[in-house]
Amino acid sequence: MTTTSPALIIIGASGFGLEVHFLAERLGRRVKGFLDDNANLAGATVLGAPVLGKIESWTAHPECEFVVAIGNPRIRRKVVAQMGALGTPAFATLIDPAALLDQRLVALGQGSIICAGAMFTTQITLGQHCIVNLNATIGHEATLGDFVTIAPLAAISGCVRLADLVEVGTSACVRQGVTMGPGSMLGMGGVLTKDAEANTLLIGNPARMLRQLPPL
Ligand SMILES: CC(C)(COP(=O)(O)OP(=O)(O)OC[C@H]1O[C@@H](n2cnc3c(N)ncnc32)[C@H](O)[C@@H]1OP(=O)(O)O)[C@@H](O)C(=O)NCCC(=O)NCCS
C-alpha cells in the first residue's frame, strides 16, 4: 500500500481502534480520523487523529476507505450492516508488513485486518471483516467465515473450520480438524478438542461450555 491510497477512516476509537491506527501508520496510510458513536469521544483527538463524528456520518467522506476496528464480532457485523444501509462504503483490507501471509495461498475477504506477527501457511480462506490479531497462527486448509475474531497468540490448527462470527480468545488453541459453529466463542487460554455448537461459550483445558450465547 502506498501513500497514494485513499485516506483511511477507522470505525471505533477505543482499544482495537488504537491497534488499527498503529497498523495503518505502518502501512503508510493517511488516517483522516475515527468515527465512533460514543458520546464521550465526540470532538476528541485520538493518537493525533480527530473523532470526526458518529458512524452514520461515514457518507460525508465518500473519498475515503473505511475499516471497522471493533473486536466483538456481533457488534462488528451490526456496524457493517448499519453502514451498508446508507450506501456502499469502500472497506480497506489491512495486512501488517510483519505478518506472514502469501496472498497466492490465502484468500482474504474485504475489510479484514491482519496484525503484526500473524502467520498463515497454505490453502486458507477467510471471509469478510475478519480480525487476526498479533502473533496468532492459522494452519493449512483452515477456513474462517465472515466476522471471525482471532485474539493475540491464538493457534488455529490445520483443517479447522470457524463459522461466521466465531471468536477465539488470547492464547487459546483449536485442535486440527475441529469445527466451531456460528457465533461460538473459545475463551482466553482455552484448549478446544471437540466441535463447538453454535452460540456457545467454552473455556478451559479441555474446553467445556460455560454458557449459551444469544442466538445470532
Ligand atoms: C470467557 C470470557 C468471555 C468470560 O467472560 P465473562 O462472561 O465476563 O465471565 P467472568 O469473567 O464473569 O468469569 C466467570 C468465571 O469463569 C472464569 N473464567 C473467565 N474466563 C475464563 C477463561 N478464559 N478460562 C478459564 N476460566 C475463565 C472466571 O474466573 C470466573 O470464575 P468464578 O466463577 O470461579 O469466579 C472471558 O473471560 C474471556 O476469556 N474473554 C476473552 C478475552 C480475550 O481473549 N480478549 C482479547 C483481547 S485482544
UniProtKB/TrEMBL annotation:
Gene3D superfamilies: 3.40.50.20, Hexapeptide repeat proteins (2.160.10.10). It holds the Pfam family PglD_N. Substrate binds at G71. Residues 8-82 form the PglD N-terminal domain. One of its GO terms (molecular function) is transferase activity. Signal peptide: none annotated. Keywords: Repeat, Transferase. InterPro entries: AcTrfase_PglD-like, Hexapep_transf_CS, PglD_N, Trans_hexapeptide_repeat, Trimer_LpxA-like_sf. The record marks E141 as: Increases basicity of active site His. The active site is at H140 (proton acceptor). PANTHER family: ACETYLTRANSFERASE, UDP-N-ACETYLBACILLOSAMINE N-ACETYLTRANSFERASE. Belongs to the transferase hexapeptide repeat family. This is Acetyltransferase. It comes from Duganella lactea.
